[in-house]
Amino acid sequence: MLDDKDIDGVIIATPDHWHARIGILACQAGKDIYIEKPLTQSIRDGQLVRDAVRKYKRVAQVGTQNRSAPFYQAPIDYLKTGKLGKICEISAWMCQVRPSIGNPPDSDPPATVDYDVWLGRRPSAPSTRTVSITTGASSGIMEIVNWVTRECMPWTWLFGGFRRCGEGSKTPCLPGCRVIPGFTG
Fold first, then answer.
1. Which of 5, 3, 19 is nearest to 53 (CA)?
2. What tens digit of pLDDT does each residue of 58-72 get?
3. DSSP category for residue 166
4. In this structure, which long-range contacts are made by residues 70-79, counting pairs with CB atoms below 8 Å and at least 24 apart in sequence?
């Protein structure tokens, strides 16, 4: 696909750990890229994608559609009027009540999945049926905070997250952040 000159761009909707590698390869092949959120799983990988986009003069977009939603646009428009005064701090968190995933044991991957290909460059690990919403859902929430802060204040991010007791998730699943203007420590 990357060698096909009739294809101008690609949509990258793969497991999160593949986003950076495929995005960079697509840019090198002269393709524009649309990457589902999250862009990458690390700051360094994000920088590498950014550098590839610039080097190969490509167009890139990350799939956070929140800015299109009227229920987010209206508050931002109101914020721009200045009627809220000076914004001193922003706190955001995600509180979605979800059923427990428990702590399922490691298992063989489904027979229809080439697990080595799915892992890519990630270290070999047992297959589990656990999930994390940190990088996907929370990146949408953090994008809204980023939008607000770019409109009204210089900012510093503080991140945190929590695991529910007894859950099998490998990463925090209840993320939150605070934005404090002028904080440099």
1. 19
2. 999 988 777 778 888
3. T
4. 72/144, 72/147, 76/147, 76/148, 76/151, 79/148, 79/151, 79/152
Instruction: Examine residue 38 and say whether the peptide bond preceding it is cis (omega within 30 degrees of 0).
Output: yes
Structural domains in the chain, CATH included, are 9-63 (3.40.50.720), 67-179 (no CATH)
Q: Are 181 and 153 in contact (CB under 8 A)?
A: yes
**Which pair of structure tokens corresponds to residue 150?**
């770019």
Burial of 125 (0-12, 13-18, 19+ CB in 10 A): exposed
What is the C-alpha separation between 142 and 176, in angstroms, rounded?
8
Amino acid at 51: D
Q: Give me the count of residues in the chain.
A: 185
Average pLDDT of the segment spanning 54-61: 96
Task: Quickly tell me which residue has 């490509």 as its tokens.
Answer: 58
Euclidean distance between CA atoms 91 and 118, whole angstroms: 36
Which segment of 55-69, 140-154, 156-170 scores lowest on mean pLDDT? 156-170
Residue found under tokens 């929590």: 162
* One-letter identity of residue 182: G
